[in-house]
């Protein structure tokens, strides 16, 4: 194991809407955490999404790609907004996001769902079900029914038929399985692989390959398998049974949204997208650019700050830095500070703060 670096190069992509506000709060918190460990961040800002379209005519300028390729890691806030919604597809902010994932080879999406003790009442689920939930969904991002060829529609016997193909190759399954085992090693050392192997051939391959990778490379990890319909039920029935969940693109799309809602507010949920371990990953909140509240200093920066913590853990491989950021977020919540989206208006013990003040408090 090489010694940790003392300076990390970060490309920061503030994007649109509340992006710049939550980015400023996050940089403040990240730099404060770094200074505790004598770590400096060399941060370059890049353009993406609507802001990039306005400045350069492209949602994913070459300059931004170059900056990302040279970075240790990438922090993204959020992109998009009504201003660009009527643009042709290649001039929409979302196209920038897809191009980024493609160019950086990001094939694994990580979404944690961790109950926030201070916000348990915000969940619509029972307290005893939610309390102590701490799971991670590892979703494959570049294969499956979204990309399988052939796809399309055809006329058949006087009617229209549409079709998509659920396709996975052994190498695609191997690499996502490795990510999942790696993630589990830094957590509870338990992986549950989700499939529909009782019905789908592609799922049988998925199950066989995940099992083989575990037996060959990850015997320290406990592996179980679950059918996706059962997993959807178990996630709301007793989510504490899960540590790390690994699944294909389609099942992961559904299960990661389901899992994230176990813990309540959108403003609290981070995510990571990873590719080849030699390349930088992208860390971003799961929420969008929230154009309805942009520029008002009321957005919650905690999802992006927790994304920066994931960056420290999974890309910079500095768990102490990640722990420090996460502990600071907990402490701030314990002290009663709340942005508008997570405040309980009936409880006088909480104080309402803006985005900037929340960032300062965490720092
Ligand atoms: P996208 O399509 O980019 O995912 P979306 O249309 O799903 O975006 P968001 O931008 O995530 O929507 O916003 C959904 C709602 O949640 C909005 O009312 C927004 O103001 C609110 N919201 C989102 N993020 C935050 C945040 N960090 N702090 C406070 N409120 C937020
Ligand atoms: Mg959305």
Automatic annotation (TrEMBL):
Origin: domain of life:
Eukaryota
Q: Which GO terms describe its cellular component?
A: cytosol
Which note does the record give on the cofactor? Binds 1 Mg(2+) or Mn(2+) ion per subunit.
Annotated ranges, domain Isopropylmalate dehydrogenase-like: 9-362
Q: Where in the cell is it found?
A: Cytoplasm
Q: What function does the entry list?
A: Catalyzes the oxidation of 3-carboxy-2-hydroxy-4-methylpentanoate (3-isopropylmalate) to 3-carboxy-4-methyl-2-oxopentanoate. The product decarboxylates to 4-methyl-2 oxopentanoate.
What is any one GO biological process for this UniProt entry? L-leucine biosynthetic process
Q: What is its EC number?
A: 1.1.1.85
Q: Does the entry feature the keyword Magnesium, yes or no? A: yes
Q: Name one Pfam family in it.
A: Iso_dh
Q: In which pathway does it act?
A: Amino-acid biosynthesis; L-leucine biosynthesis; L-leucine from 3-methyl-2-oxobutanoate: step 3/4
- GO MF annotation terms: 3-isopropylmalate dehydrogenase activity; magnesium ion binding; NAD binding
Is Metal-binding tagged as a keyword?
yes
Q: Which Gene3D superfamilies match?
A: Isopropylmalate Dehydrogenase
> Cofactors per UniProt?
Mg(2+); Mn(2+)
Subunit structure, per the record?
A: Homodimer.
Q: What is its main location?
A: cytoplasm
Name used for this protein in its record: 3-isopropylmalate dehydrogenase
Which keywords does this Swiss-Prot/TrEMBL entry list?
Answer: Amino-acid biosynthesis, Branched-chain amino acid biosynthesis, Cytoplasm, Leucine biosynthesis, Magnesium, Metal-binding, NAD, Oxidoreductase
Q: Which family does it belong to?
A: Belongs to the isocitrate and isopropylmalate dehydrogenases family. LeuB type 1 subfamily.
The protein's organism comes out as Chrysophaeum taylorii
Q: Which reaction does it catalyse?
A: (2R,3S)-3-isopropylmalate + NAD(+) = 4-methyl-2-oxopentanoate + CO2 + NADH
- What PROSITE patterns does this protein map onto? IDH_IMDH
């Amino acid at each position: 194991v090489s010694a940790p670096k003392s300076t990390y190069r970060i490309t920061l992509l503030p994007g649109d809407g509340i992006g710049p506000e939550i980015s400023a709060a996050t940089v403040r918190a990240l730099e404060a955490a770094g200074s505790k460990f004598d770590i400096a961040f060399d941060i370059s800002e890049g353009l993406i999404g609507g802001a990039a379209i306005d400045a350069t005519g492209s949602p994913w300028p070459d300059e931004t790609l170059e900056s990302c390729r040279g970075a240790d890691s990438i922090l993204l806030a959020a992109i998009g907004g009504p201003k660009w919604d009527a643009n042709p597809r290649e001039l929409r902010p979302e196209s920038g996001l897809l191009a980024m994932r493609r160019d950086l080879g990001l094939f694994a999406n990580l979404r944690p769902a961790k109950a926030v003790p201070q916000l348990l009442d915000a969940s619509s689920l029972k307290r005893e079900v939610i309390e102590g939930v701490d799971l991670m969904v590892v979703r494959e991002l570049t294969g499956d029914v979204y990309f399988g060829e052939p796809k399309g529609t055809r006329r058949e016997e006087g009617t229209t038929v549409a079709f998509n193909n659920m396709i996975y190759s052994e190498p695609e399954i191997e690499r996502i399985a490795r990510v999942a085992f790696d993630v589990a090693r830094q957590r509870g050392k338990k992986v549950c692989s989700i499939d529909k192997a009782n019905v789908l051939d592609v799922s049988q391959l998925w199950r066989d390959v995940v099992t083989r990778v575990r037996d060959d490379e990850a015997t320290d990890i406990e592996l179980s398998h679950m059918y996706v319909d059962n997993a959807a039920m178990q996630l709301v029935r007793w989510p504490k049974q899960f540590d790390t969940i690994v699944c294909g693109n389609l099942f992961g799309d559904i299960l990661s949204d389901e899992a994230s809602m176990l813990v309540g507010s959108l403003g609290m949920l981070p995510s990571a997208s990873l590719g080849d371990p030699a390349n930088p990953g992208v860390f971003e909140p799961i929420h969008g650019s929230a154009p309805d509240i942009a520029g008002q200093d009321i957005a919650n920066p905690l999802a992006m700050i927790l994304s920066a913590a994931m960056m420290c853990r999974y890309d910079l491989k500095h768990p102490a830095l990640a722990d420090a950021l996460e502990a600071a977020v907990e402490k701030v919540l314990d002290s009663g500070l709340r942005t508008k989206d997570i405040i309980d208006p009936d409880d006088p013990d909480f104080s309402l703060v803006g985005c900037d003040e929340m960032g300062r408090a965490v720092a």
